[in-house]
Write a structure and sequence with these properties.
The complex is a heterotrimer of chains A (339), B (476) and C (209). By secondary structure, chain A is mostly helical. Chain A contains eleven helices and no strands. Chain A is globular and about 65 Å long. Chain B has a three-stranded antiparallel sheet with strand order 4-3-5. Chain B has a two-stranded antiparallel sheet with strand order 1-2.
Chain lengths: 339, 476, 209
């Protein structure tokens, strides 16, 4: 009986996490279109609902009702499996993200590794989608995304090693606790180069502009998802945005003090800001990173494929390695309030 | 508890590892034709390593790195032999590489990696280090065999070597896992203690069978010799020269450490297995060599038969036998280096020596090189006056002393059969009519080294006592 | 309960392993291998070796198999020609395998076997086996660990040596050169006679400097 209760409790936590996530994904697409619109000096979606607020629902309804087509020459099993394989890791990774002190589905010791493992799994969905559709554009997109994700995973992994060295733990809640204090206690400051590398690698990992050659709508139509339609396309869409939110959450946890307010621990204003609960701060930080994603998309032109590879291997990886050495000196000397 | 290891004891390994990185970078940034900097740096590395090894480890009996590294006289002899043979291989390789436009600094880097792997193997005192050393040296060799990227045969040879090598590593690893399961330790000393206490531990025996198979693969003993002829023929000749010399010493190291040190208590069991390997290697190696027309392939099969002799010495399981096997491997390395160097010395009608018949008329054209060839072939046959005689004598003595008289007799019979094809090479070189163009392409330095190599075979044959004494001292 | 979970994962692992070998499509085979790795990782998690389990997923599934899939995807493997000679060698293969299995059963099944009970560390004081692994990696196992690093370096060099070749005709970018470029390298200012019948405008006059 106790066992059943425990399982039910875990299920409840999962549902409580995932349902809002779907809603956030839907409205993230709306936010993206709105923000892009403003940055382009236009209005963005504004027809359905007040200020276009119902637009995501309309889009979802449209996708659900469209026919799912499977190309005749496709590998049907993998073609159907691919979107699921892209989406599942994006959800599974959320299990270890702490929203507040103790507010986490699974508080495991190897949280950081688990996260890295899950983010690296998403690429299977993209590769299989590209291959199974039996289409040239799909295949090209799959090759691009495969090479890109595997390359940037290294830089991203090294960046996580930097955080690991600073905090001395792989448990995400403990990493946040290790940053307790006002915003200059957070790791973004001593690990600034690593933070930058992490962020660039994260944008590349999620195949977002300016590293979105895998989709490259102006050259290979839409890359690996060119043959997908209806809800199977929708799932890829969900996976991409869920991954963006995840990466934003990860950045907040590792470099921006998770659930702590930016003024935590400062004599007078600290307690005032602490009145706002931790999860709100956490969500606010995620929102900031999501905005950053959109901002970058609106600002930079797309990189060429070889430029992406060069940046990843010849710039980002060396930078992280060098900074890891610098950081180990910090750690040994107990530098600043961080180590 | 302090874990700080004694780094100074492992100075040779650390030095070589550091120099690998330096050669790699120097090759990239130091200007100069044909990677001359890398070449001289490599030779310097080996010379300094030899000095470091002798200085720090001769006569020592010490362990470091949590007992995973052992420094003793045996290791010194093995390592110095490996440096010497590797240096010889590098010296011989240079001209051929330049001539065939294969000269790249990576050749020396990979070669040094192989040396490092063999060094680790020679000083290993744990299953873990044995395996790591073996893999490092094998991996470097796979890459070297494929060194000529534009040659199909080179790629084919590399692939065969890689697949069979990986398979044998897997078998070896499986045997190691059994030994670990039976003893609960990776440390060779502890394994030996358990083996001595528990003489019929069936799990250890089971593992031993796999270990012997793995070792036989690395040696190239029949029936695990399939890769030898194809790899020797397909690889670029400088690589064949390297592959055919120093790794034989490393294989002896593998055997001594893994089987000799670790499972010496099971000598009765592994002697039986080795006898089978010895008989098959001698028979197949010698008989198959009789019908070869390609010179490199002939040398490959002759290697197989020589491996039979080395294993015959190791089979004895006595100090005398180990020393004989070690002596055989070292002297065979010197002789084989010269034999492969003959291939790179000459060109017939603008291409490298391939068939034995390409050597026809060598004596009339280039008398001294024919004489060197004579010395080398005599040594391989085991004719008195050359070092091959003493090598065979010691090995057979060791076998007789442990009571395997019929096995010794068999070895003698096969070495007589083996004499036939070595003499066939000499007959072609000395008595066949010279025709076509047989050109000596290697420069003067190369010829001097080759002449010295032939002379060494002669001198060691006349005065072998010093080297024998060293080999005996290593095992004392 | 744990036993049931173990058997479920073990069964799926074996099934996936069998499918890797028997699958006709190489991409399917690779995907079954991924499944097998997952189940292997799950078994490790059951044994409370969470670091090894997650590392298996991270390294093998996350990186190695992606590259593997990458290659396999581009191959056009003709399964029927690969299967040539399969039937011919089958009897020998089965015979050898049967002998091996029989020997192993005889040896490993005998009651003489005394596998030394592995003194697995299990829970350490901190309760995390990452810490336990980390504390021995650079102390007790320093030597093989560093050698493994050398092997990786060797593998990198060997792979680059065997595959990298500089081809002509590629349009490589040199960002350093691009960044260093100056106006004088691209634009050559020449002094020449102005057109006679028209008064030069201010702009053109400036360009002549």
């Amino acid at each position: 009986m106790e066992y059943v209760q425990e399982v039910l409790w875990i299920l409840a936590k999962i549902v409580a996490l995932i349902l809002p996530l779907f809603g956030v994904v839907a409205y993230l697409t709306y936010a993206e279109r709105k923000v892009l619109g403003w940055m382009h000096h236009r209005k963005g979606p504004n027809r359905i609902g007040f200020g276009g607020l119902l637009q995501p629902l309309a889009d979802a309804g449209k996708m659900l009702m469209k026919e799912v087509m499977i190309p005749a020459q496709a590998d049907k099993a993998l073609f159907v499996l691919a979107p699921i394989m892209a989406f599942a890791p994006a959800l599974a990774a959320w299990a270890v993200i702490p929203f507040g002190d103790g507010l986490v589905v699974a508080d495991i010791n190897v949280g950081l590794l688990y996260l890295l493992a899950m983010t690296s799994l998403g690429v299977y969905g993209f590769i299989l989608a590209g291959w199974s559709a039996n289409s040239k554009y799909s295949m090209l997109g799959a090759m691009r995304t495969g090479a890109q994700v595997v390359s940037y995973e290294i830089a991203m992994g090294f960046a996580l090693v930097g955080v690991l060295m600073a905090s001395g733990t792989m448990n995400l809640s403990d990493i946040v606790r290790a940053q307790e204090g006002p915003f200059w206690h957070w790791y973004w400051l001593p690990l600034f180069p690593i933070f930058l590398v992490y962020w660039i690698a994260a944008v590349a990992e999620t195949n977002r502009a300016p590293f979105d050659v895998a989709e490259g709508e102006s050259e290979i139509v839409a890359g690996y998802q060119v043959e997908y339609s209806g809800i199977s396309f929708g799932i890829f869409f969900l996976a991409e945005y869920a991954n963006m939110i995840l990466i934003g959450a990860l950045a907040s946890v590792m470099f921006f003090g998770g659930w702590y307010s930016p003024f935590h621990g400062i004599p007078v204003i600290g307690p005032i800001f602490d009145l706002i609960p931790g999860p709100i701060w956490f969500i606010a930080k995620i929102a900031f990173f999501l905005f950053l994603y959109i901002w970058i998309r609106a600002t930079f032109p797309r990189y060429r494929y070889d430029q992406i590879m060069r940046l990843g291997w010849k710039v980002l990886i060396p930078v992280t390695v060098v900074w890891l050495v610098v950081e180990s000196i910090f750690v040994l000397t107990g530098f600043g309030p961080w180590f | 508890m302090s874990f700080m290891p004694d780094f100074a004891l492992a100075a040779p390994e650390i030095w070589v590892a550091a120099m690998i990185c330096i050669v790699l970078v120097a090759d990239l940034f130091v200007p100069g034709k044909n990677s001359a900097t890398s070449y001289y740096l490599t030779l310097l590395t080996l010379a300094v390593a030899a000095w470091l090894t002798i200085d720090a480890q001769w006569g020592a009996e010490a362990m470091t790195f949590s007992d995973m590294y052992i420094a003793d006289s045996l290791g010194v002899v093995l390592k110095v032999a490996i440096y010497g043979l590797a240096a010889l291989a590098f010296v011989y390789s240079r001209d051929s590489l330049i001539r065939n436009k294969l000269m790249m600094g990576e050749f020396f880097v990979l070669g040094l990696f192989a040396v490092l792997g063999m060094m680790v193997l020679s000083s290993a005192n744990s299953l873990l280090t044995i395996y790591v050393g073996l893999e490092m040296f094998s991996l470097a060799m796979y890459a070297l065999v494929a060194f000529n990227r534009n040659s199909g045969t080179s790629a084919e040879a590399a692939l065969k070597y890689f697949v069979l090598g990986a398979l044998s590593s897997g078998i070896l690893l499986y045997g190691m896992s059994m030994v670990y399961g039976g003893t609960g330790s990776l440390d060779l000393g502890e394994i030996a203690a358990v083996a001595a206490a528990d003489g019929d531990n069936i799990l250890l025996l089971f593992g031993l069978a796999f270990l012997i198979v793995g070792v036989a693969f690395k040696f190239g003993a029949v029936p695990f010799h399939m890769w030898i002829p194809d790899v020797y023929q397909g690889a670029p000749t400088p690589v064949t020269l390297y592959l055919g010399t120093a790794p034989k010493v490393a294989s002896v190291a593998l055997f001594m450490r893994l089987i000799g040190d670790g499972l010496g208590a099971f000598a009765d069991q592994w002697q039986t297995m080795l006898i089978v390997l010895v008989i098959l290697s001698l028979a197949v190696g010698n008989i198959a060599a009789l019908v070869q027309t390609n010179f490199k392939r002939l040398l490959a099969y002759s290697t197989v038969s020589h491996v039979g002799f080395i294993l015959l010495g190791l089979m004895a399981g006595t100090e005398e036998g180990y020393a004989a096997g070690l002596f055989y491997a070292v002297t065979y390395g010197i002789t084989a280096a010269g034999a492969f160097a003959m291939v790179m010395l000459l060109q017939r009608d603008g291409h490298e020596i391939g068939d034995i018949s390409d050597l026809r008329g060598l004596f009339q054209r280039h008398g001294w090189s024919a004489l060197v060839l004579l010395l080398l072939m005599f040594s391989m046959t085991g004719i008195p006056g050359t070092v091959g005689f003493y090598a065979k004598l010691l090995v057979i003595q060791a076998a007789v002393n442990v009571g395997h008289i019929w096995l010794a007799a068999l070895a003698i019979v096969f070495s007589v059969i083996g004499g036939f094809y070595y003499l066939k090479v000499l007959k072609v070189a000395f008595f066949d009519k010279p025709e076509g163009e047989l050109e000596m392409v290697a420069p003067g330095g190369y010829r001097a080294v080759l002449a010295g190599n032939g002379l060494a075979v002669l001198l060691l044959g006349l005065f072998p006592q010093a080297l024998i004494a060293v080999c005996m001292a290593a095992l004392a | 309960m744990q036993l049931i979970i173990f058997y479920v994962f073990a069964a799926v692992l074996l099934f996936a392993g069998a499918m890797v070998v028997s699958s006709r499509n190489p991409v399917h085979a690779a995907m079954f291998l991924v499944l097998a790795f997952f189940n292997g990782a799950a078994l490790w998690l059951l044994a409370e070796a969470e670091f090894l389990g997650v590392a298996l997923v991270l390294v093998y599934v996350g990186a190695v198999m992606v590259l593997f899939l990458f290659v396999v995807m581009m191959l056009d493997i003709n399964v029927s020609s690969m299967r040539q000679g399969f039937a011919r060698y089958l009897p020998i293969g089965i015979a050898v395998a049967a002998v091996m299995v029989l020997e192993m059963i005889l040896v490993l099944g005998s009651d003489q076997i005394n596998v030394v009970a592995a003194t697995a560390g299990g829970e350490t004081a901190v309760g995390s086996n990452i810490r336990a692994i980390g504390s021995v990696l650079y102390t007790v196992y320093l030597y093989p660990f560093e050698l493994a690093a050398m092997i990786l370096l060797l593998a990198i060099i060997a792979a680059i040596l065997l595959t990298h070749r500089r081809r002509g005709g590629t349009k490589h970018q040199d960002p350093t050169a691009q960044a260093k470029v100056r106006a004088e390298d691209r634009v050559r200012l020449v002094q020449m006679q102005a057109v006679q019948r028209r008064q030069p405008s201010n702009n053109e006059a400036g360009a002549k400097e």
